[in-house]
Amino acid sequence: MSAVNFLSFETAQSILPLLTAAVLLPWEARLRRLTGERALAYEKRKRQPAELPPPMDNSAATLSRLDGSDAVVVGTSAGRPVRIKEEIAWRSGLFVGCSGAGKTRGVVGILKQLMHAMTTGKPCEIAVIDAKNETVDLIRQVVGGWLLTLPDAQKEWLRRHVRVFMFGRDCVTPLRPYDNLGSIFTDAYSAGFRTTVTVDAGTADYTDGTRHARAMFDRVMTDLRWPLSSPVAVRFFTDTAFQIFVASRVRDGHLRSFIQTMPITVPKGTAAAVCRRVDREMSDPHIRAAKGVPPAALDELLPAVEPGLTLARVGPDSVLTPTVAQELCLLRYFELLASVPTRSPKRPLLIVAEELAATVAGSPRLVLPITQLLRMSRSFGVALWALAQDFENAATVEMANAFALNARFVVAFQSREEAAWLAPHIPPDFAPGVSDAERKRAFLREMESLPPRSFFLWVKGMDLLRCQALEVPDPAVEFGRSAEELTEVFDREIGSRSTITLEKAEELIAAFEADVLGKRDVAPAPEPKARPTFSSMEDFLRHVEEEEEDGDV
Amino acid sequence: MSDPTKKVSSIFSTLVLYVLASPIFALKAIGSFVRSYRTATLVRAGFLRCSACGRGNRLDVLVTCPRCSFAEFRSLALPCSECGYVPGFLSCTGCGASVRLP
To answer: Which of A83, A446, A494, B94 could serve as a FRET partner for B78 with CA atoms 20 to 30 Å apart?
Structure first.
């Protein structure tokens, strides 16, 4: 190549970059090598679990902050008892964890202490609603054992203050489906709610017309304070003379008008459909015994139970179908919520709700009252402990947020789903010195690998505590009797005060039907006492909010 | 014009062009040097701070070239070894805003 060509502009255009590259390339190669090594080391580090620095040992300080007056022991932490003072324990809380992790035993261990305190005179109440039966069955055995071993005064307290909702093989707890006497809600609202629960929880389809006819029938029965009865339903919808008789007894003018115009407004097909559904509902002898006994007869038959411990065994079993169990569960929640405004904060109520999220998922109407209850629980002295296996997925967004905001403490047993839900609420000192993502991963790993009976206790405003649940001995071992014997003692001494036998129920039902359908001789419903009544849950909640603002509660 | 005269005039004109173009070359070289220096500083530091949220974004990672999919352990600010592609910006891992690369 000649010098001229070498020096040509075009050549210069290509040579200069080459010269530049010749200078820069070694420098770039060195940078590549350096950054490549750094990148490789970083990626390797990312794939390995972070070595957590040893956690700060704040447990002693946390334990002393948790302890206080009337404390209950909820477990142990590094061998030291974890005592939670009353002002924390008697606030709403969440117990989460997968099946078999130790929730039920853990809660029963705490409840034993609270129940024992009640038997010695502590003014408070506990209501357990168990959609799985496991918790209530365990408590029945414990109480049965106490009835054999405790001093007489405490035994007498148990007999007078413990009540049970259950369906046994030969006996049931009467439900009083249309007994609205003493309720804060109007007859119309109570009957409407009951209709909704029956329709939502049941398997029968209800058209618009059928639902309306059933709702009006329920309102009439509530007005009269009569029980549910298939023959009465048939006569009500078909016999004009009986309709006139009923119209003469109801207090509500609107109901009287409805009854008078029924032959026109309720087609025969609709009436027949309602009668079929009532008949199907009452065809089960247990359901008939539970719903068919007139409240007036029950007032005389069953002794009045003073408030104390109420156990609702409302899970499906060999006697209760899932549909009926769901209905009973929802009605029990409704009764408890309706009693809240009449409560005094000086006598706190603890509601222990097993599988609350799953139950409420079946009836969205309960979401609003329960979330409001959580928000106002301190004002009324009501605490709600919710036990859940799969809270995040089963609970609605509103309920999950309500618990996240209002629960005073969370007890988390081994789980996976709840770990992800709780991770944003874990305080930064859980694993200090690492990033948020690594802290969350570390917590998830620990939650998933928790052994049975181990749990994390997080009381808001305090450090997370890794704890071991109380050792709750098998009642059979503790009291030296078999589980069946202990349950039998409970059923004999306490269950009998809350239940009636199927035979007795049939007798009372037959007498009622003979009086109503035959002699037309039945006592009128007592006049309700004058007290504020609410026509809807929203109305009631608005009233409560106003009272809270005025500071009257 | 004879051949030797032609050659001399060609060389002379090329030299004149070089002299005239030399300021441009110089400016280009300075610009290239400044860019290279900034890139090298950034590459040595190993992270790029986002002006929006202040978070430091790591540059030394396993990079997959968006143009040719060649994956290698290097700094995001360096060009791809395979196709020479250099990204103009990266997304901040903290706030998602785009952060320019020099």
So the answer is: B94
